[in-house]
Amino acid sequence: MEISKRKIGSKYPPYIIAELSANHNGKFETALKIIEEAAKAGADAVKLQTYRPDTITLDSDADEFKIKGGLWDGRTLYSLYQEAHMPWEWHKPLFEHARKIGIPIFSSPFDNTAVDLLEDLNAPAYKIASFEAVDLPLIRYVASTGKPMIISTGMADAEEISEAIAAAREGGCKELAILHCVSGYPAPAEDYNLRTIPDMMERFGLVTGLSDHTLDNTTAIASVVLGASIIEKHFTLDRKGGGPDDSFSLEPADLAALCRDSKTAWNALGKIDYGRKSSEQDNVKFRRSLYFVKDMNAGDIVTADSVRSVRPGFGLAPKKLEWVLGQKLNKPVSANTPVKEDSFA
User: Fold this and answer.
1) Of 76, 82, 337, 341, which is most buried by a Cβ count within 10 Å?
2) Distance CA 268, CA 260 (A)
3) Is cis: bond before 338, omega within 30 of 0?
């Protein structure tokens, strides 16, 4: 898979997506600054969400349209999305700004009109949000663009994930990735069950990553060890900013740490290798070996009290001890000198 010429997969460092989401808090300048800070932190891409409240829900205060519990308790869906949505007139200047400073930018569309807007802006890829993973017509429409697509799988079971993948393929998507996700805001680490990631990779045969809603980077970094090739995290300038998503988003220093540490984890995976490493070469001499511990003369027999296994490693290997015991010396030896094969008759 490739987005904006950056290859994504197990052979490459994890692809880090900074999710701007609602963290603009209604200010265009804040959105610009978030994009700039994401680039400075080392993110591979920044992602928006493209919807209006009327394209994602209905303006109703009926009970089923109200949120119960969690961060947004008591709010209607319409009022939440009215506050959180990214004004469509911002998209073009935000895309232009991201391209100017050199960070790829794409979005999650929530209906066909959002896809059309993003196509006009030549978005390089698309993300399907977890709540939309069951909207197969939307997935097919996004797939028809021919652009790379990432599908988040929060709340979806294995059958629903298979259906979403099939819809993407039917629509014409050639480059497809899926993200393991828990759609809690925030989500506790113990809900993530990261061992699901290698199973997803085997079961679905796709580039697989993690959409992480935990409050720190531990879960995301651990996912790299299990094969995650993409990591998406919500990103804000200030976790105390008061916006709908600020409290569970990373701040700039946290995002920079994620970009650094996830790549360190990926590099540490390396390959299966039992050989001596370059950083070990100078320390080989400090391994244990056999040393004489007293002065001895030619013709003396080596006994258990005349040799010991000690550091450093210039003598025979300790596994040679049984062979050495009982050997006759062919020359004098001094205490604190290494045991060598040429010392024996």
Assistant:
1) 76
2) 12
3) no
* CB neighbourhood size of 292 (10 A): 22
In contact, 186 and 248? CB cutoff 8 Å: yes
Instruction: Give the integer Cα–Cα distance in Å for 33 and 19.
Output: 13
Q: Domain 12-51+86-269 maps to which CATH number in 3.20.20.70, 3.40.50.720, 3.90.110.10, 3.30.1330.60?
A: 3.20.20.70
CA 231 vs CA 13, 122, 193, 221, 246: distances in Å: 11, 23, 15, 9, 18
Distance, in Å, from the CA atom of 249 to the CA atom of 18, rounded to the nearest integer, reads: 10
| Total-model pTM | 0.89
How many other C-beta atoms are found inside a 10 Å radius of the C-beta of residue 158? 13
Instruction: Kindly tell me if the per-residue pLDDT of 345 is higher than 80.
Output: no
What pLDDT digit, counting tens, does each position of 176-217 carry?
Answer: 999 999 999 999 999 999 999 999 999 999 999 999 999 999
Residue 338 has which token pair? 């290494």
Beta strand 149-152 pairing with 126-128: parallel
Domain boundaries, the chain: 12-51+86-269, 278-343
Q: How far apart are CA 220 and CA 317, in angstroms?
A: 44
What is the per-residue pLDDT across 284-305, written as a single tens digit (0 to 9) for each? 899 999 999 999 999 999 999 9
Q: Write out the E strands in 51-156.
A: 105-109, 126-128, 149-152
Identify which of 194, 195, 196, 138 has the alpha carbon closest to the alpha carbon of residue 168: 138
150: β partners: 127, 177
β-bridge pairing 6-7 and 2-3: antiparallel
Centre a 10 Å sphere on the Cβ of residue 2 and count the other Cβ atoms it contains. 14
Q: What is the pLDDT of residue 251?
A: 98
Alpha-carbon distance 34 to 275, whole Å? 45
Q: Is the CA virtual torsion 131, 81, 171, 8 positive or negative?
A: negative
